Amino acid sequence: MLQLSDSQLATMWSQGDSKAFNRLLELYKDKIYRLAYRMLRNKSDSEDVVQETFLRAYQHSHRFDATKNFSSWIFSIGKNVAIDFLRKKRTSYL
User: Would you say residue 22 lies in a domain?
Assistant: First the structure.
């Protein structure tokens, strides 16, 4: 695949290009993992956050605005998923 910007890849993905989604996954999975690990301090939960982040992004790809920054959008999803994990753990301890 040519050297495309994240926004171009996201636009292609929202139009059904699975190769574009795979490229975005490769570009961001480690970054999302590191974000989650900083928040959760748990390898397994951090891996789950990565999966859930990309699942939510896939389900809501139509909400991505190509005029915006893809990395901000995906990191926002990742942060919110990690917060959900923290909330779930906190309530399970009570």
Answer: no
